[in-house]
Amino acid sequence: MKQVSFLFLGIILSSQSARKRSKWRVKILKIDVDGLEVYFPYDYIYPEQILYMSELKKTLDAKGHCLLEMPSGTGKTVSLLSLVIAYMLRFPDHLDKLVYCSRTIPEIEKCVEELRNLFKYYEQCDGKPPSLFAVALSARKNLCINESVSSLRQGSLVDGACQK
């Protein structure tokens, strides 16, 4: 059985019965995930999110690769961002960049929104946001403001018209 080290730094407000899905309502300032202080910007955290962050940290410590799977709606994005941002701030020489790729624009927008929330949370807790740079990239066909060009459906046509 895996042993996961984590510590809640906050006040536990309530918990559900063990028969239901385990969920704690916690006013969290910081979570200690295997020795790494991680800010988590929500009042609720699932045990699966802590386990996910722990596995990510082990992978980063080992400078390896990992494949983690969690069902939709379980907080993968915020868990990943919370852990990776904390890791980047603590170990800037080990990890200096995160490339987050997604298939759809709404998924990228969700990631950007979670990152904004996390940066605001850091600012609330520390008085300043993390000193990190984030950029969301997309194809020209999604960004072009010229209506005659953006109305073209095919990406290569948009690219060609955009260069004129």
TrEMBL record:
Highest taxon listed in the record's lineage: Eukaryota
Sample GO molecular function, one term: damaged DNA binding
Pfam families (alphabetical): DEAD_2
Keyword set, alphabetical order: ATP-binding, Hydrolase, Nucleotide-binding
A single Gene Ontology CC term: nucleus
Coiled coil region boundaries: none
Gene3D superfamilies according to UniProt: P-loop containing nucleotide triphosphate hydrolases
Annotated Helicase ATP-binding domain residues: 35-164
Keyword Nucleus among record annotations: no
A biological process from GO: transcription by RNA polymerase II
Full protein name: Helicase ATP-binding domain-containing protein
The organism of origin for this protein: Brugia malayi (Filarial nematode worm)
Gene: Bma-xpd-1
